[in-house]
Amino acid sequence: MTDRESPRRRVPGPARPERADGRRRPGPGARPARRPAPPRPAPKAIRLGSPRPRLRLIGFTFTLVLLVFVVRLLQVQAVDASAYAAKAERNRYVVHTLAAQRGEITDRAGVALATSVDAYDITADPTLFTREQLKIDDGPEQAAALLAPILGKDQAELVRKLRPQDRTLRYVKLAGRQTPQVWRQIKDLRTALATKAKTDKSTVNFLAGVLAEPSSKRVYPNGDLAAGILGWVNAEGKGGGGIEQQLNERLAGEDGKIRYAQSGGLQVPTVGSTETPAVPGSDIELTIDRDIQWAAQNAIAEQVEKSDADRGYVIVQDTRTGEILAMANSPSFDPNDLTTADAAAMGNAALQDAYEPGSTAKVMSMAAVLEENVATPQTHVVVPNRLHRGDRLFQDDIDHPTWYLTLNGVLAKSSNIGTILATGQLGKTQAEANRMLYKYLRKFGIGSYSGLGFPGETKGILAPPDQWSTSQQYTIPFGQGVSINAMQAASVYSTIANGGVRVEPTLVRGTKGPDGQFTPAPKPEKTRVVSEKTATTLARMLESVVDDEEGTGTKARIPGYRVAGKTGTANRVDPATGKYRGYTSSFAGFAPADKPRVTVYCAIQNATKGSYFGGQICGPVYKQVMEFALKTLQIPPTGAKPANLPVTFKP
Predict the structure, then answer these.
(1) What string of DSSP letters covers 90-135?
(2) What pLDDT, in 10s, does the model give residues 102-116?
(3) What is the pLDDT of residue 7?
(4) Full 3-state SS string of 439-487
(5) Which of 103, 349, 387, 600 has the greatest count of CB atoms below 10 A from its CB?
(6) Where are the beta strands (DSSP E) in 514-636?
(7) CA of 205: how far to CAs of 389, 398, 546, in Å?
């Protein structure tokens, strides 16, 4: 390789000095250095706030909220746990009464006179009728408009129940003891509304909150038959009168209870319930014979209507046992429908009316005279047309010449004057005679309750003898100035028929408990009033009233039977004014006269059409009822001849 071809070797030269800014100075032949651009200002950095304060604030807020929840949780679960649990239980659980089945009332043969059938109490949950539930303001009004005609209730009253002042109230009773037909009608309406609401969003089922609870309804299969005895059951399910009221505790039984969870007014089936079963009431068997009761009620109703009278009553009694076979009142009422009942008829007038009996009371005066041996049936009694005693002039029901009667004739012709003369012999003075007569009246049960214990029964009015006025000393012997009820009057004749022994009247034969066991009623109390001899003599004397042509009770004759009886026609005190107005007409007696089995007593108050004499309007009722009773009880005639005691004598 030549020198030319040999590579140029670089000889390192002296180093170029550097400039003060660190760059090298340019050497010879070097390109001039580029002037540097002025430095750009650096962008300002964004300083972020510290996150710690905000995190602390958020943490504090969460802590506070959690603390509130913890405190509330402690309060609910620990401090007030029992109170809240109880409140929850009340809101969730409901307690309903399970009504006990009311016992039946039957006649002596077991025929139902009062019984109970299935029914429903129509209820509602008022919280289901609010705007929050129905989305309308007039839910209670619309529901009430539909329910009122079905339930027979006032529409405004239903609205008040469906919108109570207590907004938390979950239960109200809209109507009690409604028939299954009523509940079915409500259910059909509720179902129809629910079905329509599914397709028509504007339809509101405002009956969704109407519910029902099983109950029972009292019914009386025979209508008004024996209504005065049976009474009725009120809207609360309690006896409102008669046997229903008197024996309410036995009939009612004991209600039970059921507790269950509810939602939307309906029972939740998956949650348990507790139940205390109801105990059914006892059945009551009466002494009443339904057929005889029917005959008595028809007979008195017909005569009261025919006579245009205020009212009337008939009592039929077994003379040996004191059992009441019938007790009929007219007018009566239907306990199935009290809305049509007359308030004045809703009772048992045969026990509640106090009135002056008139001549039917003369049998007690004659019993005292015979028992005290101051006269016999053949004793002669001269009866003038007028008799002056005390401050009054007494007379009989008709003007007559002087009658020459036996004591038997005084009873047969129902002479007031003859009775005054006979009872005057009971003492050496009138005061002694008064005391003696008073003693016998009390023994016959006058002035005392009959022993039935019936609601509203009157014991009548019998003042002590030292309080008798001048006129009462002479009117009480023939049945004026003393007040009784129809049961007392019937009992007097049953006492004579039973040989002089008074048997306390009874209406109840016994009870049958839920176990089916029959318990007889306690035996009635017996009291001897007069001797058997006196009673037998009186029975023969009472035959003359019916059989003798001179007697006042000929319309009570029953072919083939010996009948003992007595008529009565008394001045009547008007209960409205307290003054005498009209008459009390009556007839009392028993048959067969020589072997008594049945007593019948009839009284009619204030007959205004036709006759008002007891023998004329009550005698036929007595005959009709007595004939029916004798046939029903299959009591044959005795076949013995009547005594035919003399009525008059020749002076």
Answers:
(1) HHHEEEEEEPPPPPPEE-TTS-EEEEEEEEEEEEE-GGGGSHHHHS
(2) 999 999 999 999 999
(3) 47
(4) HHHHHCCCCCCCCCCCCCCCCCECCCHHHCCCCHHHHHHHCCCCEECHH
(5) 600
(6) 518-520, 526-528, 564-573, 580-591, 598-605
(7) 84, 79, 75
